[in-house]
Design brief:
Elements: E1 37-38, E2 41-42, H1 43-58, H2 65-77, H3 94-110, H4 114-128
Antiparallel strand pairs: 1-2
């Protein structure tokens, strides 16, 4: 008769007199899983920028229209507010980032808030990985 240790499954108790088996747990990963990304940037990168913008404002920084667009885009990317031009909510996917980029581009050509639209577009382009020039800068 073949040995059939049905008791050797998670949560089961071995019958009296059965040999004890020791199952090892799977090894833990050496590092934490990769950070969540939006586009080509991590949520942590964008969150740090939003936090820095908030710090600048709390210390009296007067937000330019361009930087107001940057802030609005970053807050949308984190799911904190609707997209500035498309109105989408939640953390965006690749297609939604592109749609917001296109909408900001259109607003720059036809709208009254061109500097704001330029800030939104530049921030979204950075998040998408279309540029390495991150548009927020604050000289403390």
């Amino acid at each position: 008769m073949a040995e059939n240790p049905m008791w050797n499954r998670p949560g089961a108790v071995s019958p009296a007199g059965a040999p004890a088996t020791q199952q090892s747990a799977p090894p833990l990963p050496d590092a934490a899983p990769a950070a969540t990304t939006v586009g080509r940037r991590t949520v942590a990168e964008v969150a740090a920028l939003v936090e820095e913008i908030g710090l600048a404002l709390s210390q009296g920084y007067e937000m330019s229209e361009f930087h107001a667009g940057v802030q609005a885009a970053y807050q949308w990317v984190l799911g904190q507010s609707p997209a500035p031009f498309t109105g989408r909510t939640g953390i965006p996917d690749r297609d939604q980032l592109r749609a917001e980029d296109d909408a900001a581009d259109e607003a720059m050509r036809t709208g009254a808030r061109r500097k704001f639209a330029n800030g939104v577009q530049h921030a979204v382009m950075w998040v998408r990985g279309q540029t390495e020039d991150q548009p927020w800068f604050w000289a403390r």
